[in-house]
Automatic annotation (TrEMBL):
One of the GO biological process terms: L-leucine biosynthetic process
Similarity comment text for this entry: Belongs to the aconitase/IPM isomerase family. LeuC type 1 subfamily.
Protein name: 3-isopropylmalate dehydratase large subunit
PROSITE patterns for the chain: ACONITASE_1, ACONITASE_2
E.C. number(s) listed in UniProt: 4.2.1.33
Organism of origin: Mesobaculum littorinae
Pathway where this protein functions: Amino-acid biosynthesis; L-leucine biosynthesis; L-leucine from 3-methyl-2-oxobutanoate: step 2/4
Lineage, opening ranks: Bacteria, Pseudomonadati, Pseudomonadota, Alphaproteobacteria, Rhodobacterales
Known cofactor(s): [4Fe-4S] cluster
Domain Aconitase/3-isopropylmalate dehydratase large subunit alpha/beta/alpha: 8-458
Length: 467
């Protein structure tokens, strides 16, 4: 048998049928559903008189539209958002799908609660009507973002029609320098390969720097695979993965656990497996980075200066000009001189407990600069509860942060947490597109540590320089 990649193995284990043109029907192990991309899918089922094929493998949670202040418990004021969340509630009830509602401590961003509740496990196929489903790949699960018509197909059949992607390997070897985190790794990769670098591929992240990351860090890396153009991101499971999954509400237990681990042990790319593309990165060369433009590939070390359109070629010249204009930046300006108005810590990229601990560590003995709006939005009710129990929440509030309830929040402008026109934000989220965080809002992507440093000084700041 020829050597297989991790992607090949999970793929092969889930093919139900293959057509002559290579189109496959894949069995889906887990289906995560949120309020934005599911209403028409459930409506389609209803009109066709169908049921949900495997409600026990389906879980619903509202996250994008929910306000993150406690008033949401009295009902959502915005009509569109209220209708979407009410519709999810009704659909979950009608079709027998479990839902973590806004008053449930398990509620949170769909990609945070999947792993947290043990729904996400190695070797599984996982889908969600959301592009950042790639996050779950950190467990060695094949996790695809899908569209609403596919959501309907999966609800009805528990299968997905897919063509196999190519294999891409991103190997990050060596040790990270102090102040450099998983977010810097994933942004640096996209800076290097571009937002189209992974097109048509599933990326497997490997190498000693990836192995050294916690599960939280690995989720941060896989979360942004989609920003690098890939169909999914994957990391082979290991002892850290098993330790994270073990004991979670939906994880296998007792004899099932042993059987599961035995299978998970086989989920590694074989020696000699072929990749269509290989990218190698030296971890020791990665710096704390920020984005300067309106694409996640616009990445530079914080020690650099704002580029000039002349630094680019082809279509990128005009794109850079437009970006700089939108971002209100001048070529040659030092990145660390850029003043910010807002700091957002949260999202499915960096809203986990480890991220909040990192921020708390940086804020030790420091305060949010006067006049800066800084908010922390835990990725789930459980992350929030854990941070409160550990005393992190109180410390961060004392340091000047707002402490919110779980949701996508300011990661995208679908709920009340938004930037005003022209406002500039140091953000731990994953997209810096025009208007992403609010009309004419300006986003700089970075790690939680770097966002905390920006909160202290009121400008983009090298976390290594904090006095
Ligand atoms: C609203 C949803 C469909 C969207 C996605 O697919 O990613 C959102 O989560 C995002 O991050 O832009
Ligand atoms: S936190 Fe942001 S990126 Fe993640 S699912 Fe929500 S809107 Fe999408």
């Amino acid at each position: 048998m020829s050597p297989k990649t991790l992607y090949d193995k999970i793929w092969d284990a889930h093919v139900v049928h293959e057509s002559d043109d290579g189109t496959c029907l894949l069995y889906i192990d887990r289906h995560l559903v949120h309020e934005v991309t599911s209403p028409q899918a459930f409506e389609g089922l209803r009109m066709a008189g169908r049921t949900v094929r495997a409600p026990e493998k389906t879980i619903a949670v509202p996250d994008h539209n929910v306000p993150t202040d406690p008033t949401r418990l009295q009902g959502i004021r915005d009509e569109m958002s209220r209708i979407q969340v009410d519709t999810l509630r009704q659909n979950a009830k009608d079709f027998g799908v479990e839902m973590y509602d806004v008053d449930d401590v398990r509620q949170g961003i769909v990609h945070i609660i999947g792993p947290e509740q043990g729904w996400t496990q190695p070797g599984m196929t996982i889908v969600c009507g959301d592009s950042h489903t790639a996050t779950h790949g950190a467990f060695g699960a094949l996790a695809h973002g899908i569209g609403t018509s596919e959501v309907e197909h999966v609800l009805a059949t528990q299968t997905l029609i897919q063509k196999k992607s190519k294999n891409m390997l991103v190997r990050v070897e060596g040790e990270l320098a102090p102040g450099v985190t998983a977010k810097d790794i994933t942004l640096t990769i996209i800076g290097r390969t571009g937002t189209a670098g992974g097109t048509g591929h599933v990326i497997e992240y490997a190498g000693s720097a990836i192995r050294a990351l916690s599960m939280e860090g690995r989720m941060t890396v896989c979360n942004m695979a989609i920003e690098g153009g890939a169909r999914a991101g994957l990391i082979a499971p290991d002892e850290k993965t098993y330790a994270y999954v073990k004991g979670r509400p939906h994880a296998p237990s007792d004899a099932d656990w042993d059987k599961a681990v035995e299978y998970w042990e086989s989920l590694k790319s074989d020696e000699g497996a072929q990749y269509d593309r290989i990218v190698e990165i030296d971890a020791s060369e990665i710096a704390p980075v920020v984005t300067w433009g309106t694409s996640p590939e616009d990445v530079l070390p914080i020690t650099a200066a704002v580029p000039s359109p002349d630094d680019f070629a082809g279509g990128k010249v005009a794109a850079a000009k437009r970006s700089l204009d939108y971002m209100g930046l001048t070529p040659g300006q030092k990145l660390s001189d850029i003043e910010i108005d807002t700091v957002f810590i949260g999202s499915c990229t960096n809203g986990r407990i480890e991220d909040l601990r990192e921020v708390a560590k940086i804020m030790e003995g420091r305060r949010v600069k006067d006049g800066i709006r800084a908010m922390i939005v835990p990725g789930s009710g459980l992350v929030r509860a854990m941070a409160e129990e550990e005393g992190i929440a109180a410390k961060l509030q004392e340091a000047g942060f707002e402490w919110r309830m779980a949701g996508c929040s300011m990661c995208l402008g679908m709920n009340p947490d938004q930037l005003s026109p022209g406002e500039r934000c140091a953000s731990t989220s994953n997209r810096n597109f025009e208007g992403r965080q609010g009309y004419k809002g300006r986003t700089h992507l970075m790690s939680p540590a770097m966002a905390a440093a920006a909160a202290v000084t009121g400008r983009l700041t090298d976390v290594r320089d904090l006095a």
